[in-house]
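Colleagues,

Please find the record for the two-part complex below.
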Amino acid sequence: MDPHLSSRSTVEASAIAAPPEAPLLAAAWAVFRKDVRSELRTRYALNAILLFAVSTVVAMSLGMGPLTISRNADLPIIRAALLWVAILFAAFTGLARAFVHEEEARTAAALRLSARPTAVFLGKLLFNLALLLLLVVVTTVLFVIMLRVEVGNPGLLAALLLAGSLGLVAATTLIAAIIARASVKGALFAVLSFPLLAPLLVVAIQGSANALAGRGWESGVGALQVLAGYTIALFTASLFLFNSVWEP
Amino acid sequence: MSDRLRLDQAAKILLGVWMAGIIVAMFLVVPQYVGLGDAGRIIILHVPTAWITTVAFAVSAVYSIRYLWKRRAADDAGAVAAAEAGFLFCTLATVSGMWFANIVWGTPWNWDPRETTILILLLIYAAYFALRSALDDVERRRRLSAVYNLFAAVTMPFLLFVAPRMAESTLHPNCAFIQGSHCDGIWLELNGTRVGQLGDVVLALQGVEQRGDLAVAQVEVRMPGLREVALLEPSFELSTGKPADRPEFPGQQFLLAVEGVDLANGRVLLNMEAPGTGLLSNSRTFWTFMAANIGFLGLFIWLYRLRADVLLLQDRLARREVAYELPA
């Protein structure tokens, strides 16, 4: 090893790292606020995913009309699957935006200089979570109204939607950062995300079906545990791997 | 160096002879299995390829870790080569399994937990290759695809844990990894607990009687949701101590077997079998199966190392081309 090289690089590193020595969470919060502000100016992701969700739900209700209990005994699982498919594909259209926008606007380099990788990741994760929760609320409310769904256990459904959203965001934020560097971004995001989301989707749909059918909390505890474990595992893995993705 | 080459050559020939031996043994050594006939021979081909698929995925993930750690082109080539070989074996396992399922279970695809897992694995491999082809910069392609490979590996345990919940039942003849199945069976008694549950089927013992060398149990079987109720008469050979007649559950491919009888007290040990259970209890089948596992593992190692060498060579050639095209 060349001693000059190593000493110079440490000097450089400390010079670069000096200004953003702000606490991690404060830096992450700053990244989040920056993203919210820039999103509110363009409303690109908001418009895209909300309109996508509305179109999906309207298309479903146009195609099927209100499904009544008398028509089908498997109704809760069908409805739960439709709800999660609508959420999933709306999420695929919008959640990559946080990182793709940085690359397209060529602001990624500036962001690299001004915040630590972990802070960037946490900020983007928070932004995606906020976006997804908004999407989930809008989709679910529309879904319940337009398809005349009776929710048997609203508390459990809300808990599952929240846990599912956390898992979805934990899985897709890192993938968004990966595909932002690739040449065909839109299609690739869904292709890379779907296989990883399969376990989450299965558990969330089955749990939600129980909630729609009005079964008690004990029917959803297993699903919530799996979703929590999934979220924690993928979040931890993302924290380890994000540095390698975020290198210039 | 030449010693190593000679050793490699010898290993290659040995592998070829070994695999040829397995293919011959698959048809000549392995006996027919009751209930499956010749279709049962697929275990020699299907199970090792499915097993190698997971090994390949793990090998690829280990190379990806090493790449992110040391950033050497050789590790990336290893990861890609293992993934490509794994994809090949994954396809083989899926196709051979579908073929077998179509013959024995009457449908090529059943959303069986194993089928689901292997399909998702195929999708992950495909996504990995799609990602690689979408990244133009060589260094970035290696780094990001290694990250994706590891990230996908993190979700695999959840898939293995979750998939068994998907279908209500599995047709795969193995209960060791699948939740909710009882490998040990249940004891029912005429004078005690007469009703019990195997998986999601309720069994009620109605009677036991001896007919010659056979002990025949009358068992009422109620399928989930009381869709179907049937009276089955599985039997047990007293002299050999083995199940004799295994009737099928109504509307399903499972068999009901009596695995133990206590005639004096009216007690019966009942168990559920998928066709093919106990295939490996035949020692000729077992040893051919183990030899096939070793052979396929060798085949995988040979394939992925060869492919890794080719990938490295290609990389070196490409770089030399770039170097020569530069103005001197």
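Chain B has a mean pLDDT of 81.

Comments are welcome before we finalize the supplementary table.
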